[in-house]
Automatic annotation (TrEMBL):
Species: Haloarcula amylolytica JCM 13557
Domain of life: Archaea
Matching InterPro entries: YjdF-like
Transmembrane region(s): 6-27, 39-59, 71-88, 100-123, 129-152, 173-195, 207-230
Keywords: Membrane, Transmembrane, Transmembrane helix
Transport listed as a keyword: no
Coiled coil location: none
Protein name as catalogued: Uncharacterized protein
Amino acid sequence: MVRMEGLLFLGVFACLAGITVIFYIAVRQRNAPAVVNTAVSFLLVFIPVLVDVLAHWFYGVRVGLTPELPLWIAVTGLFHSYGMLGPYDEISWWDHLTHTLSAALVAALLYAGVIVALEYAPVSAGNSLIWTTVVLVTLLSGVYWELIELLAREFGRKFDLPPVLDHYGRRDTVLDLFFDVVGAVLVLVTDLRLFVPMAEVSPETTVAVLVVVLGGLVVGSLVISLIVVVEQAESKTQTHSGRFD
């Protein structure tokens, strides 16, 4: 068991090394979007560790962190970072791969949280409710991400800067959401309960996190949608006024 954990952590460090190399290449190429995305991918790997440290510091409890979570984040970040150097544009299935990986991670965390939350719920729930909840919330997170891409594109146009994230149109959005669902279904079909022990450390906290995440996705999606609509309207107004000048 100890040896396996050591190998998993070694995998995390290997992915971080790969992301660091990609960051260096992006800087050399003056590829600002790749630099930003690679830096964020690197930092995200440490979020679970930071949460575990803060939970122990403030509440005296451990999150039950396992190396699988940072490894999954690191692998996903590595593929995404490398994609920013060209594969997203040159390899048709690269975007599908990264969406499936990231959505599966979201779904695995949701699956664990929903299982634990329903165990302590006053009413019983079957697998159909769990599956529906995981798929719908994973899909909602995918919609949220697509809206962020749209927002990045609009701000890039407004300030004449290269967008940090690329948005390739409606067809690409539909495909992205489809593979988000594929990632969620893979987790459910395989009954992947990898993160259940983490969720069981504090069921009350797990329920609270689920509520905050769901609320954040709903409110965030509405706010970003409003901003994108306003930006697009302003852009069209400026375009029309430019034609008449």
